[in-house]
TrEMBL record:
Keyword Signal: yes
Domain called Leucine-binding protein: residue spans: 62-400
Record organism: Aneurinibacillus danicus
Signal sequence bounds: 1-25
Chain coiled-coil ranges: none
Protein's recorded name: Branched-chain amino acid ABC transporter substrate-binding protein
């Protein structure tokens, strides 16, 4: 993996974190990401393909694209790309996919939609990747969606659970991370039925991501005849959470639902702890399903619930053991819980689709083969399913809870039936 420091990047007017599996054996390499103003030269439509001549496919290689936030307030999610990369290296060491090695090209979009648009254009038109996997940031993916639709490039395992990517179905876009609305509905039911909550407060990020969970939670609460006692938004640029913590205290909830990213989750939970709000705190998986939060939030990280759409790090599951060993080998020092885990799981699904495609590596056949996955549990994700009418990936989670310095399983797998 090649890293370029921030000072050098500013000097050349672009930001990139680029690594490739094959280059790791021959000295590495760097690819410059476009700035907001740059427009990479068009080199033809990504739709022009036939069998092995599809973009990103050679007799020996399959080129896959990605962006992941490596800087700024959401840099935590950069580990998604490291998880993808680790799985690709693991597969390559086993001989690759149908005789071809996997190569990843990834850039830092800085959690900025404008950069994501420029990067997606570069990945498609200049790098000519076969598919894209694991892109983070709801707003970034939403901004790039018109480009994805226009070019028909397979986008697998969008690292966002927003409705816009799966409802209605977009033929070439495949979700995997738990849909935020599905997760919110599961949270509401668990809070009411298991935690016996009657006064629920909601804290949410004031953007597409946060509103997805917030809106679904409000809808599910209405079905139960419950009005939330607090509805408190925040912005991703906020650093002081003392005021929203006091507002939540004044509302006197018996459960808090939090639709927040990791850094904000930790900061808010610390402020709640300071003002004495220590009721059950249920936080979305992208903001809470990571053992590193015990370090980020310290003693405040107690009475916390979240969800996981994958098997848990530290469990006895052989698939988890394989992941932990491989991550330690190919991405030393990377925290195995949270984003790296998601990246590995997303890469597993992409590779399974490639394997099923066999020698016909057209994008059309690849997507056709993804839609043969039904309750697929050979990877870390639960019950992966795609059909022409359903691209959610998984709507199955386990509830997890803090215990002795780590998040542990607190429920069996809960499968939410969309549309019922």
């Amino acid at each position: 993996m090649v890293k370029i420091n921030r000072k050098s990047l500013m000097a050349i007017g672009s930001v990139v974190v680029s690594f490739s599996l094959l280059l790791s054996a021959c000295g590495g390499g760097t690819t410059s990401a476009p700035t907001n103003a740059e427009a990479p030269k068009s080199t033809g439509s990504a739709k022009q393909e036939a069998g092995k001549s599809a973009p990103g496919i050679t007799d020996s290689e399959i080129l896959i694209g990605n962006w992941a936030t490596q800087s700024g307030p959401a840099a935590f999610y950069g580990a998604i790309a490291k998880g993808v990369d680790a799985y690709f290296q693991y597969v390559n060491e086993q001989g690759g996919v149908n005789g071809r090695k996997l190569k990843l090209v990834t850039y830092d979009e800085e959690y900025q939609p404008s950069r994501a648009v420029a990067i997606s254009k570069k990945l498609i038109e200049e790098d000519k990747v076969f598919a894209i996997v694991g892109n983070d940031c709801t707003s970034c993916n939403k901004a790039a969606l018109p480009q994805f639709k226009k070019e028909g490039i397979p986008v697998v395992g969008v690292s966002s659970g927003a409705d816009v990517f799966v409802n209605p179905v977009i033929p070439n876009v495949y979700g995997l991370l738990t849909n935020y609305g599905v997760e919110a509905r599961i949270f509401v039911n668990y809070a009411v039925d298991e935690l016996k909550a009657k006064r629920i407060g909601i804290f949410y990020q004031n953007d597409d991501f946060g509103k997805s969970g917030y809106n679904a939670a409000i809808d599910e609460l209405k079905k139960k005849g419950i009005q939330p006692v607090a509805e408190i938004p925040y912005n991703t640029t906020d650093v002081d959470f003392s005021s929203p913590a006091l507002k939540m205290k004044e509302a006197n909830p018996d459960v808090v639902l939090s639709f927040t990213i990791t850094k904000s989750t930790a900061a808010y939970k610390k402020e709640l702890h300071k003002v004495g709000v220590n009721v059950p705190f249920m936080v979305t998986s992208v903001g809470g399903a990571d053992n590193n939060l015990f370090n980020l939030a310290g003693e405040a990280w107690k009475n916390v619930y979240s969800s996981s759409w994958t098997a848990l790090v530290g469990s006895d599951d052989p698939k988890v053991k394989k992941y932990e060993e491989a991550l330690g080998k190919y991405a030393k020092g990377v925290n195995p819980s949270g984003p790296a885990l998601w990246g590995w799981a997303e890469a597993e699904v992409l590779v399974e689709g490639l394997r099923r495609a066999g020698d016909d590596l057209s994008r059309e056949n690849f997507m056709k083969q993804l839609e043969t996955l039904k309750d697929w549990n050979e990877g870390l994700a639960f019950n992966v399913t795609y059909t022409p009418e359903n691209h959610y990936g998984t709507t199955s989670v386990i509830i997890i809870k803090d215990q002795d310095g780590k998040m542990v399983k607190a429920s069996d797998v809960i499968k939410y039936e969309v549309g019922k």
